[in-house]
Amino acid sequence: MKLLEVQNLKMYYQTSQGYVKAVDDISFQVEKGETVGLVGESGCGKTSVAISILRLLPSNGRILGGRILFKGEDLLEKEEAKMRKLRWQSISIIFQAAMNALNPVYRVGEQIAEAIRVHQALGRREVKERVRELYQLVGMDPCRGRDYPHQYSGGMKQRAIIAMALACNPELVIADEPTTALDVIVQDQIMEELSKLQRQLGMAMIYISHDISILAETCNRMGIMYAGKLIEYGETASLFREPLHPYTQSLLASYPNLKGEKRKLSSIQGEPPGLIHPPPGCRFHPRCSRKKTICEKEEPGYRKIEDNHWAACHLLS
Length: 317
Ligand SMILES: Nc1ncnc2c1ncn2[C@@H]1O[C@H](COP(=O)(O)OP(=O)(O)O)[C@@H](O)[C@H]1O
Ligand SMILES: [Mg+2]
What we know:
Layout: E1 4-15, E2 18-30, E3 35-39, H1 46-53, E4 61-70, E5 73-74, H2 80-89, E6 91-94, H3 108-119, H4 124-137, H5 154-166, E7 172-176, H6 184-201, E8 204-209, H7 212-215, E9 221-226, E10 229-235, H8 236-241, H9 246-253, H10 293-297, E11 302-306, E12 309-312
Parallel strand pairs: 3-8, 3-9, 6-7, 7-8
Antiparallel strand pairs: 1-2, 1-4, 4-5, 9-10, 10-12, 11-12
Helix pairs in contact: 3-4, 3-5, 4-5, 5-6
The chain binds adenosine-5'-diphosphate and magnesium ion.
The site of adenosine-5'-diphosphate has 15 residues, from strand 1, strand 2 and helix 1.
């Protein structure tokens, strides 16, 4: 059975100017223990997908359609109390720049202990032991648990946040730009650490990033998001060998040397569109150098190229 199946998910934000169509009919799956990447420029709806899965929407967020099956059960139909139990225990999330969310007035180890106590009925000694274990797991000296957040570097704070996300042995971890706020060297260390933990603990992960090169070595499969749509999905190897969508092609062209320096070369002209009145037809057409007349009028359907690789683009038909 699939661990997670997102089917035709639609999530809009209500605003005084109209609905922001942040997640518009998106489907993908995550198998047990696998790592799936979600990539796209800022504002394409990646975080919106993540918070929809956990049902952690802001008050103006509305799920208007679709299903989110976790081990066959629809999360959208669960009562809030059941959902609360599931968060952290079965599915946890590492938010972008979450390290800034550590409370400055409490010792870091105490904050991790609190996260454990809230979700698991363990005795004092067991909690303490679990905190030690988690420190070791994320590559930190357990003694540092006595320190306050200001005594940690950015990378260490992020490791502490990762430790918290792993506290209850979740089956799925969603990491939303887990390293974006860190410098490049620490980014690499944290990504390696996360991959190692993922292999060691066997949990599934959804990795979210605007930087496709960061995910190249980490993810089995990858989905490319553009303007609230999933425009391409495939095995990472297949996607890098033969990117189908012009948007994916430009994302890859921006990073010429995936193993070397992460330098942005020819970034794509313009910006993703606002999502209250997204462009008709293919949402990418205003920025696409190969657009045809049909692209401005008709939304492209998905075309399957290989078994596990498909894209939505009129050029493929
Ligand atoms: N609370 C909100 N109210 C209205 N619009 C929002 C809200 N949160 C995000 N958005 C909009 O939804 C779109 C998708 O945002 P987001 O999911 O954060 O994208 P990403 O994570 O890819 O950067 C953007 O256009 C953003 O401005
Ligand atoms: Mg985001």
